[in-house]
Design brief:
about 80 residues; about 40% helix; alpha+beta
Length: about 80
């Protein structure tokens, strides 16, 4: 049984936005989906663990950017939960 959190967007939607905007930051994604930056980081880390995303670690003042691993990785893997 889950907590009180009810997702208002899917992993598919996040992946589609990242595919259209390679190198997008978690802050920009958080603004786009109207959630906190911390909530977006949580979702992005789940997608990284599942193998859908890679992260380009920023250096100095450059923020981290997110990229999909191939053009449509979610079509060959199933989402669970």
């Amino acid at each position: 049984m889950g907590g009180r959190y009810k997702s208002t967007f899917t992993e598919q939607e996040v992946l589609n936005v990242i595919k259209q905007n390679p190198g997008i930051t978690a802050t920009r994604l958080a603004i786009r989906f109207s959630v906190s930056r911390q909530a977006m980081h949580h979702r992005l880390n789940k997608l990284i663990r599942k193998g859908f995303l890679k992260i380009d670690n920023g250096a100095g003042r450059r923020p981290n950017g997110y990229y999909t691993l191939d053009p449509t990785p979610w079509r060959r893997k199933r989402f669970h939960g």
